[in-house]
Amino acid sequence: MSLITIMLNILLPPLAVFIKHGIGGTFFISLILTLIGWIPGVIHAFLVNGK
């Protein structure tokens, strides 16, 4: 995982997921989790982009 991806995972989780996986279910899950609370969005982004 690059430094840019890590920074995006922290600052803008849905954008980081979009860049790696495009628009799809994973992006919308990340968006919803980020809207509910920032921390769940960050955790999800790290889990998804860490694979």
Automatic annotation (TrEMBL):
<keyword id="KW-1133">Transmembrane helix</keyword>
<keyword id="KW-0812">Transmembrane</keyword>
<feature type="transmembrane region" description="Helical">
    <location>
        <begin position="26"/>
        <end position="48"/>
    </location>
</feature>
<dbReference type="GO" id="GO:0016020">
    <property type="term" value="C:membrane"/>
</dbReference>
<dbReference type="InterPro" id="IPR000612">
    <property type="entry name" value="PMP3"/>
</dbReference>
<protein>
    <submittedName>
        <fullName>Hydrogenase expression protein</fullName>
    </submittedName>
</protein>
<dbReference type="Pfam" id="PF01679">
    <property type="entry name" value="Pmp3"/>
</dbReference>
<comment type="similarity">
    <text>Belongs to the UPF0057 (PMP3) family.</text>
</comment>
<keyword id="KW-0472">Membrane</keyword>
